Amino acid sequence: MKRPFAIWTGCLGLMLWVASAYANQKGPVALSPLEVQSSTAKAAEGFSLTCSVTNKSNQEIVAYSIVADFFDSSGNPAGRLSTNAIMNLATNSKGSTRGLAPGATGGTNRFALPTESNGTPVSYKVSVDYVLFKDGSTWGPDTAKQSLTITGTQQGWRQSRSQLKRLMAERGIQAVADALAD
After folding, report:
1. The pTM is what?
2. Other C-beta atoms within 10 Å of 26: how many?
3. Cβ-contact 149, 43 below 8 angstroms
4. Are 73 and 119 in contact (CB under 8 A)?
5. d(CA 162, CA 14)
6. Average pLDDT in the 105-133 region?
7. DSSP notation for 88-100
8. Percent of the chain surpassing pLDDT 70
9. Domain residue limits at 63
10. For the sheet containing 105-113, what is the strand order?
11. Residue 2, SS3?
């Protein structure tokens, strides 16, 4: 009868350890607001990894970053790539932007998939690294620091758009065309 008791106490200890690990985290434990679907395909130049995302949150997503970690057959890291998608740069006639609505799927991202020395593709894990919501709130660890690129691109787009609108109002469409041609 000592063995079932030992198993029971071992399980209880494991549960307490897991609960303690969650309790020691800073902030709430949150599931990713994006779900990533991925597939591989043989291409002329090797293998490719294609990913799309589905918005699982209740908020509109305007930008995100995903990372692909690659592993060799021994499980050792074999590389890491990241990419981002920024969906809210253009505005409609009412001045509002459009992102990835709750429940919507989109954002096809492709990565070149590294191969082993024998030509077979390495294993991989794709994860969501950063999400920017329409209200300005964010989610994710941002390990690839793509939030800097996302923020800079958005600011540059807004500044350029503002300058072109001002140029149009002051000097007309030809001045805008000339500015864009340079």
Report:
1. 0.70
2. 4
3. no
4. no
5. 57
6. 88
7. -SSB-TTS-B--B
8. 78
9. 2-181
10. 34-43, 46-55, 105-113
11. helix
